[in-house]
Design a protein that fits this description.
The chain has 283 residues and is an alpha/beta fold. It has 11 helices and 9 strands. The strands form 2 sheets. Strands 1-9-8-2-5-3-4 form a 7-stranded mixed sheet, with helices on both faces.
């Protein structure tokens, strides 16, 4: 990591892409999952060769993310604009204006760890909800890089009161909610035309606190700079039918994330088994 830290950014990203290519070649389990998921999502639109190219790009993007994570200590308020641009700040300001905090909904898309740091360096304080990584040393290391820019973590199994306290202080609670996680409460909504088990927490948290629900994603550009995009706050349906509203509101944020993935498929983690859980409790 020390050697990676010393590398100039352009050179480091070049070697990171090569390491991603190597991972694509030597990790058949994850390569095959990515190709299978991509074929399901884009089989009618893209050729097998195009799907493989996208899958390779996924591994390259993740390797670049790792390189950039190690270089987090080089980033500060003076130079963040050279690496990442925040678009849609007015949408975040609209959320803050409500005075009840913001639930930022995002995905494992682009360099999501850099997204959190970019928001913090643009004076958008808050916490992120994360899962506890059971290899303790890696969990500690990842949180070290997060805390370089005062991005703190509340674990999923912590008390919801911690999250509500952050929102009460009119700060951000960031939720990465694009995966099939059977340990959290979820519902089924369509994702790429197929029912996917999706966390219900973001909508529930926004409804319980009165916080704005705002999708925010980060996109890697062709020159390896980044654009952080804050969408408009989602207007939550409120018909009085809690179950129906929960499904509708979850669809609203999920469809926005899906639209980004469709446009930039190489920037999402396709090696995750997104459709693992089936209706009826089967996996």
């Amino acid at each position: 990591m020390f050697l990676i830290y010393l590398l100039p950014r352009k050179i480091g990203l070049f070697f990171a892409a090569k390491m991603g290519d190597l991972a694509y070649a030597i990790l058949p389990k994850y390569r095959n999952i990515a190709i299978e998921n991509l074929a399901f999502a884009f089989g009618n639109e893209k050729t097998p060769l195009e799907i493989r190219r996208i899958a390779r790009g996924v591994f390259e993007n993740l390797a670049k993310n790792g390189f950039e994570l190690v270089q987090f200590p080089k980033i500060d308020k003076r130079n963040i604009h050279k690496l990442a641009t925040l678009v849609g700040r007015e949408n975040l300001d609209a959320g803050y204006a409500r005075g009840k905090g913001i639930v930022v909904i995002t995905a494992h898309f682009g360099n999501w760890e850099l997204m959190a740091a970019t928001l913090r360096l643009n004076d958008c304080p808050g916490v992120t909800i994360g899962r506890r990584i059971y290899f303790h040393k890696y969990d500690k290391l990842l949180n070290y890089f997060r805390k370089v820019h005062d991005v703190n973590v509340i674990y999923r199994d912590d008390s919801p009161r911690k999250m509500l306290k952050v929102l009460k202080e009119n700060r951000i609670v960031g939720v990465v909610a694009d995966q099939d996680v059977d340990s959290v409460e979820g519902i089924f909504v369509d994702f790429f035309g197929r029912p996917a088990y999706t966390p219900a927490g973001p909508v529930g948290l926004a409804r319980a606190s009165g916080a704005a629900l705002i999708p925010v994603l980060i996109r890697r550009e062709p020159d390896d700079r980044h654009t952080v995009i804050a969408e408009k706050p989602i207007e939550l349906a409120d018909t009085g039918d809690k179950e129906k509203d929960l499904v509708e509101n979850t669809k609203r944020w999920s469809s926005i994330i899906e639209s980004y993935i469709k446009r930039y498929p190489e920037q999402w983690v396709w090696m995750h088994k997104r459709w693992k859980t089936q209706a009826g409790g089967q996996t």
